[in-house]
Amino acid sequence: MSTTARANEIGRMDAVRLADEIRARRLSPVEVIDATLDRMERLEPVLHAFCTPTPEAAREEARRIEADLAAGREVGPLAGVPVGIKDLVATKGVRTVMGSWAYRDFVPDEDDVVVERLKAAGAIVIGKTNVPEFGYSGVGHNPVFETTVNPWDTSKTSGGSSAGSGAAVAAGVGPFAIGSDGGGSVRIPSSFCGLFGMKASWGRVPLYPGVKDERYPGVSSWESLEHIGPMSRTVADGALMLSVIAGPDDRDRSSLPAADFDWMGVLEGDIRGLRVAYSPDWGYAAVDPRVREVVGRAVEVFERDLGCEVVEASPGWEDPFGAFWAIVINESDLVGMRRLADELGDRMTPHLREVLQAEWTAEQFTDAVMTRKAVYNKMWRFMRGYDLLLTPTLAVPPFETGIQGPTEIDGREVDQFAWLAFTFPMNMTGQPAATVPAGFTDDGLPIGLQIIGRHLDDPTVLRAAAAFEAAAPWRDRWPALLEEMGL
Questions:
Q1: CB atoms within 10 A of CB 301
Q2: Which residues contact 267 (CB under 8 A, 6 or more apart)?
Q3: Are 87 and 134 within 8 A, CB to CB?
Q4: Dihedral of the CA atoms 28, 474, 225, 222 (nearest 10)?
Q5: Catalytic: which of 185, 191, 220, 279?
Q6: Are 315 and 279 within 8 A, CB to CB?
Q7: Mean pLDDT by 10 residues, the chain (487 residues)
Q8: Which residues share a beta bridge with 408?
Q9: Is 221 a catalytic residue?
Q10: How many whole angstroms separate alpha carbon 456 and alpha carbon 202?
Q11: Predicted pLDDT of residue 211
Q12: Interval 343-375: pLDDT, tens
């Protein structure tokens, strides 16, 4: 096999196989990192997935792991496996810009818990992946870096806010990456990029430190909404990452006790006999007909091939988007963020500046809390009748870069964020939710299916995702861009 063919083979390997091959010394971690960094270098001028690559540190770590393997020393379960880290997640000694001019030179003095755990497991950080400013968007542009684009169609957005993580993994620049999800930001780019992405139950994966900067202490908001999770090309890779990053930590007062299940073990078995609800539109959302068609076919797989009982039904709440934004703002340092908006002026993303400068009232914040309680109460009552709830992940296929979202869906005039209707309510409830590739539009754009579980029932979500992957596999379908570039 030629060197190029070998490198391309590495780029298309999943994390489970890479870890096995490296541990068995059939693959060198140095060879893996060299192949990954070469792939990154070739794709970055097109995709702009990484805002801060870390090639020198990655190569140094690969050499260290290779020496440990040669000496017979114990290595972690992810030894030598490359991983991208979203640029909202702190990395010690590596700048964390968060898409903002205010942080263009900010270098954290400690790792986020998940980065700490990935490193301890032997994963090799290859760089920071691009985000919209402070994550306040479902797309991938910010005032500092080039706009991240979608490998399936480079005129389209990869989604956000884990924009670079989605584009990188879809193009094989590492088998998985860290995303964070305060309103859908793992599931959105995973859906747009044809990936598996999961936010486990709120508290499964601890959050710390966020951003520590004396000037603007409140930019790390979304506390009661935020999840950190995997974005990967296979369900097993996502479960493997969760097995490493999940578990309690005293630095996060909301972290849950250790799971009473094995993250990889729950992938085994079928889901025959499960009672499954399908809501195509929550009863109110505008949904693109292409999404309805593709997701509808995917839902049929659950009944026809997987043996589930599928019922079309919705939990019955009214659109809680206004309450969602009020919760985000209520959990921010509004004084500090407004000062930041004043300092940056036109260098801050317009819709972010607008939401910060709005006249928020105490009544809006308390109403938001009550709306959240009402949404959750409707949800737990609804889920007592079902094992799973299926929805589209997003209301539209990937759209062009440079906008926050379409203002018309299926002939209806909508708000520019209306396409996110299916993701953010699950951040308000904290339930486990994953997206899997449901299929593709006629012009080859990925569409996602969201799989939602009962409170704390991560195992059933993962098992259902794995069962769907086996019944309707997607792992061997890659963006045409890669073939065009000889990758």
A1: 18
A2: 235, 236, 239, 462, 463, 466
A3: no
A4: 60
A5: 185
A6: yes
A7: 89 98 97 98 98 98 98 97 97 96 94 98 98 96 98 98 98 98 98 98 94 68 92 98 98 96 98 98 98 98 98 98 96 88 95 94 97 98 98 98 98 98 98 98 98 98 98 97 97
A8: 413
A9: no
A10: 8
A11: 75
A12: 999 999 999 999 999 999 999 999 999 999 999
- Cα–Cα dist 34/82, whole Å: 10
- CA distances, 102 to each of 90, 215, 220, 322 (Å): 16, 10, 14, 27
232 is known as an active-site residue: no
- Residue whose pair of structure tokens reads 């997206």 in the numeric block: 435
Q: Residue 170 in contact with residue 195, Cβ under 8 Å?
A: yes
Task: Measure the CA–CA gap between 28 and 116, rounded to whole angstroms.
Answer: 23
Given this model, what pLDDT does residue 164 score? 98
Judged on CB neighbours under 10 Å (0-12, 13-18, 19+), 25 is exposed
CA contacts within 13 A on the Cβ side of 211? 26
User: What is the secondary structure of 122-143 as a DSSP string?
Assistant: T-EEEEEEP-SGGG-SSS---S
Give the SS3 label for residue 198: strand
* pLDDT value, residue 217: 62
Grouping H, G, I as helix, E, B as strand and the rest as coil, residue 460 is helix
By DSSP bridging, strand 227-232 and strand 388-392 are unpaired
Contact partners, residue 237, CB within 8 Å, separation at least 6: 14, 15, 16, 175, 176, 196, 230
- Rounded to whole angstroms, the Cα distance separating 335 from 54 reads 34
Residue type present at position 185:
S
- Active site annotation includes 86: yes
Active-site residue, from 28, 137, 158, 161: 161
| Alpha helix ranges (H) inside 227-333 | 235-245, 289-304, 321-330
CA dist 175 → 14, 33, 151, 248 (Å): 5, 12, 15, 25
In angstroms, the CA 341 to CA 357 distance is 8
Considering Cα of 192, then 49, then 126, then 1, what sign does the dihedral take?
positive
pLDDT (tens digit per residue) in 205-251: 999 998 777 666 666 678 899 999 999 999 999 999 999 999 999 99
Torsion 370-276-206-177 (CA) sign: negative
- How many C-beta neighbours within 10 Å does residue 381 have? 11
Query: So what's the pLDDT on residue 334?
Result: 87
* Secondary structure of residue 150 in the 3-state scheme: strand
